[in-house]
Amino acid sequence: MSLLCRGHLLLEDVPGTGKTTLAKALSASLDCDFGRIQFTPDLVPADVLGVNFFNTAEAKFEFRAGPVFSQIILADEINRATPRTQSALLEAMQESQVSIDG
Asked: Could you give all domains of the chain from N- to C-terminal order, each with its CATH number?
């Protein structure tokens, strides 16, 4: 239902009930990119969003997209992340855009 409504789905349950398996199976059956984010206190927004890095071979900056750019994302233990990192995820979810390097 959430896919049809272009929304989000929250699954909460005790460990070992198949939430990850369900997300992976859904992603595979729909042929979608799957990303998993294990939130920890030391995770920074760049780990979620992606990072600009300097490619020395081509002498230019390139963007390496983070897992938030996947079509289906499993965000595990969101409550363990810092408010700044949670904010980065919520911006992507609410606004359908991200702020990189800013």
From this structure: 33-95 (3.40.50.300)
Distance between CA atoms of residues 87 and 27, nearest Å: 25
Cα–Cα dist 84/75, whole Å: 15
| Residue-by-residue DSSP string for 29-97 | HTT--EEEEE--TT--HHHHHEEEEEETTTTEEEEEE-GGGSSEEEEE-GGGS-HHHHHHHHHHHHHS-
Of 76, 73, 78, 69, the closest CA to residue 96 belongs to 69
What digits encode the pLDDT tens for the residues 47-75? 999 999 999 999 999 999 999 999 999 99
Nearest to 44 by CA among 82, 99, 2: 82
Calculate the CA 59 to chain-centre distance.
29
pLDDT in tens, 9-41: 888 888 889 989 999 999 999 999 999 999 999
